[in-house]
Amino acid sequence: xxxxxxxxxSSCQGKTVLLRLRNSTTIQGSLIDFDIxxxxxxNNAEDITDEKHLSLGKILLRGDNILAISLPTDKS
Length: 76
Description:
Strands 4-3-2-1-5 form a five-stranded antiparallel β-sheet, with no helix packed on it. Helix content is about 15%, strand content about 45%. The chain has one helix at about 1-10, and strands spanning about 15-20, 25-35, 40-45, 55-60, 65-70. The two termini are about 25 Å apart. A hairpin with a 6-residue loop joins β3 (about 40-45) and β4. The chain has a single domain (about 1-70), classed as SH3 type barrels, CATH 2.30.30.100. The chain has about 80 residues and is mostly beta strands.
């Protein structure tokens, strides 16, 4: 199972992902890297929780703060 998740996440590097955090914040950004603890590095991150989007730039998110990750779908 862990290998499956790692493979899916690897295929999404450089693509935009959508994250829901434990504090009900929604973050969108380009996935740069991740580790076995699901710590994520995002580039061009934005807080899109409210109508007014807040630019965050390059960020590191600790994995235990992430509730859900929405990965882009392959359109092949």
